[in-house]
Amino acid sequence: MRHARHSVARSIALVLLLGGLVAWPITAATPTARPEEVGLSTERLQRINELIKRHIDAGTFSGAVTLVARQGRVAHLEAQGLMDIESRKPMQKDAIFRIMSMTKPVVGASIMMMIEEGKVRLTDPVSRFISEMKGLKVAVTMPAPAGPAPAPGTPVRFYTVPAEREITVRDLLTHTSGLVSGGVSNREAQKVGLKGKETLADFLPRLGGVPLDFQPGTRWAYSATAGFDTLARIVEITSGMPFDKFTKQRIFDPLGMKDTFFYPVEGNPRMATRYVRGEKGLEKQNNPAFMNGAYFSGGGGLMSTAEDYLQFAQMLLNGGELNGKRLLGSRTVEVMTSVAAPDTLPGRPKGEGYGLSVRVVNDPIARSSFMSAGTFGWSGAYGTHFFVDPQERIVGILMTQTPDQQVRLDFENAVMHAIVGTGALAGTH
Q: Which of 110, 142, 408, 410 has the greatest count of CB atoms below 10 A from its CB?
C-alpha cells in the first residue's frame, strides 16, 4: 500500500514537472509553450518588448499588452508600462481594453451564424429588415461657387439622386455601402444623431433619411459605426435577442470569453485608461457618447482582454471551432476571411483587400508586409489590433488605449520576424 502511494506521488510529481517544462501557468485559458516548441525564437520575440518600450518612452502610449500564439499555444504574453498614468498603476496582462472596431469581426461572425441558419443572405437588401432603409438617396457634391474660397468649415453643397440599387448585407460587411462613410453622409447623420439611452432599434431607422456617400458597391469607404451597427440590428431582428445577449450566449460563453462585454462596471480596476496625445503629452479621455448602457454598437462597443480576444481569433483560425465548441462551419469562415472587396476597388490600399468584416492581405509585397497571403484581422480606433496568419498558424494581438498606425505595422513585422521553424505541432489545432 505504501509502495502504491509513493508510486502515485512520483507520477503526480513527474506530471507536474513535465507540465512546468511546456507551459507557464497551468490555469491559463489557452495552452502555453516555450517559443522554440512552436517554431518561434525567444530572442526574437524579445524585440516586441523592445518595440513597445520605445513607444512608451516616446510617449506614444502609456502601456500595452502583447500576445503571440502559434499552433494554438501562447508563446508570448507581456504587459508593459502603465494602465493609468495618474495612479502609476502598472499594466496587467488581464487588463480590459475598449477594442472599438475589433468589435466588427464579432458582428461578422454573428451575421455568418444567421446566414448559416437561413435567416439572412449576403444578397438581402437591408430594407428587408429595416424598412426605412428602402429607396435611399446618394449625395452628389457640387463644385464651390466662383469667387473667393469659402471659409473653413463651410458645409459642402450637394444634391441627391436615387441609389441605383438597394444596399445589401454584403455591402455593409465590406464597407461598400456608402452609409455614413466619411463624406456628406457623416454630416447629415449628425442631424439625426443618437440621443440619451436610445437603442439600435430606436436610432437606426432614422438613417433611412440620410444620403449615401456614393452609389453602392462602386468604392470602398470605411463606415466607422453605422454600417456595423445596422448589421448588429439585423442580428437582433433575426435572432430575436438583444445583440449583447446574442454575443454572450452564442460567442463569448462558448469560447470562455469571460472578460468581453459591452459595458463595464463603473470603476472596474482592470480597465485601462484611454488617452490621446496632446500638446502636454498623453491626455485622459472619457468613453464615447454612444456607450450609453443601452446602445450595443456593432461598430465599436466591446471591451475585452488580449487573452479573451485570442479565443475568438483562434476559433476563426481553426475554421470555426475551439475546444470542441463549433460556432461556424469551416467553409463559412473561409468565405468570411477571403477577399470580397479587392485592392483594385477605389479606396483600398494595394496588397490589402477586404473580406466580410476583416482586412485580408492578398499581396504581402505590395503591402510591404512580412505576413503571408491570406492573413486577416482588423484594428480598433483606440490602439488595439489583431491579425491571424492561417499559413503560419499565428495569432498576434496588440492592446493599447492610444492609437498609432505605425506601431501596429511594426508589431506585425516583429511577430513574423520571430518565426524560425514550423514547430513540433505544425498543422494541429
A: 110
Judge whether residue 4 has pLDDT over 70. no
Q: Which domains does the chain have, with CATH numbers?
A: 27-101+243-417 (3.40.710.10), 108-146+154-239 (3.40.710.10)
Cell 437588401 belongs to 125
pLDDT at 224: 97
Grid coordinates representing 183?
Answer: 463624406
For residue 141, what are the contacts with CB-CB under 8 A and spacing of at least 6? 156, 157, 158, 183, 184
| pTM for the structure as a whole | 0.91
As given in the structure block, the three cell numbers for residue 222 are 470605411
Q: Is the dihedral of CA 212, 213, 214, 220 positive or negative?
A: negative
CA–CA dist 405, 347 (Å, integer): 17
**Residue 192 confidence (pLDDT) above 70:** yes
- For 365, counting Cβ atoms within 10 Å of its Cβ (0-12 exposed, 13-18 middle, 19+ buried), the class is exposed
Q: How far apart are CA 408 and CA 85, in angstroms?
A: 22
pLDDT tens-digit profile of 202-219? 999 999 999 999 999 999
Q: What b/e readout covers 104-127, taking b as 16+ CB neighbours within 10 angstroms?
A: bbbbbbbbbbbbeeebbebebbbb
Question: If you search the block for the grid coordinates 479573451, which residue do you land on?
Answer: 308
The label of the residue with cell 462585454 reads 261
Cα within 13 Å of Cα(181), Cβ side: 25
Q: What is the pLDDT of residues 322-375, one digit of tens each?
A: 999 999 999 999 999 999 999 999 999 999 999 999 999 999 999 999 999 999
* In the predicted structure, residue 196 carries a pLDDT above the cut 80: yes
DSSP secondary structure code for residue 164 in this structure: S
Taking CA atoms, 268 is separated from 86, 96, 97, 259, 303, in Å, by 16, 9, 11, 11, 12
**Contact (CB, 8 A) for 141 and 184:** yes
Closest-CA residue to 260 (of 23, 250, 203, 320): 250
